[in-house]
Amino acid sequence: MEASKQGTTWTFVLVGVTLVGGLVSSTGCQVSVAGQTLPSAYYLHDDVQYFPAGSENKLANETAALKAARVEAQSQAQR
């Protein structure tokens, strides 16, 4: 009786380890690798992030200020 009980116990342990291993490997997590965001297990439910294209000139305010300063300097030089 003892041998069959021990065999049944090992069978349950083996089935349990297999199920836990299957569950762990089927779940995912979101990971960032080399600048790429790899999907998680819930990628179909994630928010879509959209960043609209901005101006090519990242220093638009500074460029406008310098242009206005040049125009002002030229107008004062002509007086």
Can you characterise this structure?
It is a single chain. The protein has helices at 2-26, 60-78, and strands spanning 31-33, 36-38. The chain is mostly helical and 79 residues long. Strand 1 and strand 2 form a beta hairpin. It is rod-shaped, with a radius of gyration of 33 Å. The protein has two helices and two strands. Helices cover 56% and strands 8% of the residues. It has one domain (2-78). The longest helix has 25 residues, at 2-26. The protein has a two-stranded antiparallel sheet with strand order 1-2.
What's this, in brief?
A hairpin with a 2-residue loop joins strand 1 and strand 2. The protein has 79 residues and is mainly α.
Q: Domains counted in the coordinates: how many?
A: 1
Largest sheet: 2 strands, antiparallel
The SS-based structural class is mainly alpha
Strand content: 5-15%
> Which bin fits the share of residues in helices?
55-70%
Task: Give the secondary structure arrangement, pairings included.
Elements: H1 2-26, E1 31-33, E2 36-38, H2 60-78
Antiparallel strand pairs: 1-2
Kindly list the characteristics that best describe this protein:
single chain, 79 residues, mainly alpha, two-stranded antiparallel ribbon, rod-shaped
